[in-house]
Structures
1.
Amino acid sequence: MVAESTPSRTALVRRARRINRELARLYPDAHIELNFASPLELLVAAILSAQTTDRKVNEVTRVLFARYRTATDYAAADQAELEKVIAPTGYFRAKAKTLITLGQALSDRFGGEVPDTLEELVTLPGVGRKTANLVLGGAFGKPGIVVDTHFARLARRFGWTAHTDPDKIEHDVTGLLPQREWTAASHRVIWHGRRVCHARRPACGACGVARWCPSFGTGPTGEATARKLVKTGPFS
């Protein structure tokens, strides 16, 4: 890794926005890789995605969403039956309890609808800021930074933050990128993390934003070696 002096605030903002623009060129179709057709489906899928892959969640939700269509359906669900459906996602007992209490909370407090504000979303069972921002951006078109493990890793490598706490990372990054870009930038960074900037061996030599990355050299810098590390999907 090449050491560099601490950039000025202006230089940091310029570099962050330059990286974001280049990621937009590299991943023009970046999007949520969970399948959903409503705010409730996205919220449920996001809860199920903890400690598993989006691909596994998408396999499960094909069946789940056909059986449970409303918040009331989840609120009235038989836990054992729900557990059987979502078992492939892991931690299915805890997740089933969360989905049932989520359905109850939505039915009791929000008329069965998923609220469209961060303040209300984070009061729901199983919903933190990451999930809330994902739902806000994906279901309601409201900007939010989605700090998952990929985003957190790349934000540190890009020099956008020095923090490991997701809330602090979110705060730092919102100060670097235009608000209108928060949701799209989140998906681009996550896609780049899944495909190129891996946790253990990032493909530095095949990275489209390498020239602006202060962490260049963390992984192999030779293009031939790096190209072998690039993943093309399906994810995650």
2.
Amino acid sequence: MKARVLLVAAAFTAVLNPAPASAWGKTGHRAIAAVADPHLSGLARAHIREIIGIESLDEAATWPDEMRSDPSPFWQKTASPWHYVTVGGFAYDRPPPEGDAVTALSRFNAMLRDPATSKKDRQLALRFVVHIVGDLHQPLHVGKGDDRGGNDVKVTWFGKSTNLHAVWDSALVDDQQLSFSELADRLRRHTSSRDVIDWWVSNPIVWIAESAQIRDRIYPAGPELSYDYVYQHTPIANRRLQLAGIRLAAYLNALFDRPMPMPRDAE
């Protein structure tokens, strides 16, 4: 069997440097998917159901990070760059030779539109699309290129040693002590119809530019982070989660904007 996933793997060169930690953590990624879900069109919802069956969108959202524990070269090397981009200034320029989140998103979009794509590879592609949209709204997944997206910035979080990337992946979100469904409900209640209209952007270059503009403002003046950092930056993190949820719906609705043939194989 010659799975399409091997073609995807061959399209990217293995990277030597470790990837940043997974953006948003499970709580954030699941909340983004739950915010997106009510805004899906009927056609998008039907296509998604055909691809992943009874698996919910929030389950799909965390799968690419969960698979990073797989020791195979595909997950340890090839797929690593698909979670982030590097932007020295504010504008995305071009991808590195090994690819990045933008090139992966484009490739998976094409796979989902291609009627020849097997069901198994269609599942992989959809799960990555859901995940990558969330990743690109985490400011430190739009890295400057000199500190691995804040992984090299050592800080303490209420006295515990960690790094800035980990703070933004999970500590800042989980400090609210909400389940992903509680967080998603709060985010939805604070998202107006006008917000949905204003935020409905399916272009990842726009999301990246926003994250890059925010990124440099979230680096702390000192290494000790606690209540003041929470007070200042939790609203920013929550807004990025809100935006990611609306943009995920916008992207999926645009992707599944017309009926597409769906393979019936189990590959």
3.
Amino acid sequence: MTPLINQSRRENSAEHSWHLAMYALVLSEHASAPVDVLRVVKMLLIHDIVEIDAGDVPFHDPVARAGQAEREQLAAERIFSLLPDAQAGEFRSLWLEFEAGESDDARFAKSLDRFQPLLHNAATGGGSWVECQVTEEQAMTRYRPPIERGAPALWDESAELIRQHFHKPRND
């Protein structure tokens, strides 16, 4: 998880999910296509609960991410099996839609899932970018596709924040 903007500690999963739900409500006008905000919020919350159950790993750590998709698949199956069939089917469908990232709702949800930690990193002097020694090229490559696909205007702002971070004078 990324640091809180006040840098007092790392953001916890509940805060991350709350931020994303609020981002969906506030930023939906910037989606690349009209979206159903309630569906987007559901996708984000379901996606996060699966990540929490699987063990959320740092986005910028490829070693820790190895096998994450399989862990999340098992977590999703476990969580959804606890629900009544109709609800399990709905939640599984929303989770799979988010993971596939093909619908307008899923593209926007995925864009927010990348945009939110990017904002935190930019606002905290690099946050996990510094910790994981992320380069400007890596940041652009990792953030651009999902953000630009789901919310091009948010990508324009994101790209500028990344450039500002990597080109500001350092006080080393």
4.
Amino acid sequence: MILDGKRILITGVMTNDSIAFAAAERAQREGAEIVLTGFGRARRMTERAARRLPTPPDVLELDVNSPEDLAGVHDALAERWGRVDGVVHAIAFAPPDALGGNFLSTPPESAETAFRTSAYSLKAVAVALAPLMPAGGSVVGLDFDASVAWPVYDWMGVSKAALEAVSRYLARDLGARGVRVNLVSAGPLRTPAASGIPGFDDLAGVWERRAPLGWDTADPAPVADAVCLLLSDGARAISGEIVHVDGGFHAMGAEAVA
């Protein structure tokens, strides 16, 4: 079991259809002890999903835009475990007017919300929990390829590009502490988050046609496996990396999305 004895915080579990849930399930089966986070009224959804894991974990309150919540999670994990070995960042949000072809008309407040929640939050979580990684650790974030402009993805795409930059700077600044920071760039999956992206079906269809290994939009297991690999000691010399788990789509030539 590649995560035997590891203590890992996993954010972003909303339902049992989410990528974060698949990562949590795989982490437990690989020997990790985990704690989840939830936020506001959606925390009840996280708690329901937690009960479907092999060993139901506790759920801590975490609004990643709240310094008080970040400090609270640090204190709770310090008391519970004394250390943290890994963190999974699976948090992204953009207001409706920042998606769906509204790029040119999106107000600055909505763009800022998308950036802060989806990109800056990686830094906020990593810095809050790095003191609990005195012997090093691993921070893994979930990404979607930001090397090109996607239809309707708009300011979430900009935020993912920022997330990729944030991960590199964190890898630079936390590396001296032995903390690795990497991203997993997943192909499109039919998750609760995807349901809020206009035109998702068109994007998923292109992926299914073009990925040389094929791509199953209903199967998050390959992404969960990659997340757990990066959390493990097997990735001890990998940092600042973006691992594409997308059936090879990212290496193929472009095709327009209708």
